Amino acid sequence: MGARKQGESSAGAARTADLRARIEALDPDNEGDELLREQVLQTLDLIAALEADVKDKGVSILNARGAVAVNPSIPALAGQRKLLAILVGRLFPPQDTPGQRQARAAANARWGRR
């Protein structure tokens, strides 16, 4: 892995702030969205804590035996980022473009005849 550039952390912070703003703008009366919203916000907080741990301790640490090992926050961070992507995908499902709708209709017409 290459070294992280100075601007990357500020870009990540901007994306996180944008995501938090989009989440706060959701309808609070929708219980399903509210649960997902809480999970996304908790996941964002955990990601921030894990990133701070990696920044503080580094990518590699000394384990109990004194050997160099990967900081346990690294795989935890990867898992939380994956979870965040899933939750955000459920909260903000992608919208089909007109071309995608036309292609789906054509595929349904072609395969629906069989």
Task: Explain what the structure shows.
A two-stranded antiparallel ribbon has the order 1-2. The protein is 70% helix and 5% strand. It is built from 4 helices and 2 strands. A hairpin with a 5-residue loop joins strand 1 (60-62) and strand 2 (68-70). By secondary structure, the chain is mainly alpha-helical. Helix 1 runs antiparallel to helix 2 and helix 2 packs antiparallel against helix 3 (73-91).
Strand line-up across the major sheet:
1-2
**Main sheet specs:** 2 strands, antiparallel
> How do the SSEs run, as a string of H and E?
HHEEHH
How many DSSP E strands? 2
Number of helices in the DSSP assignment: 4
Low-confidence stretches: 1-7
Mean pLDDT: 85
Strand content: 5-15%
- Alpha-beta classification: mainly alpha
Termini Cα gap = 50 Å
Rg from Cα: 20 Å
Overall 3D shape = elongated
Q: Roughly what percent helix?
A: over 70%
Question: What is this entry, summarized?
Answer:
70% of the residues lie in helices and 5% in strands.
List keywords for this structure.
disordered N terminus, two-stranded antiparallel sheet, mainly alpha, 5% strand, 114 residues
Question: What is the element layout, followed by pairings?
Answer:
Blueprint: H1 6-24, H2 31-57, E1 60-62, E2 68-70, H3 73-91, H4 98-112
Antiparallel strand pairs: 1-2
Helix pairs in contact: 1-2, 2-3
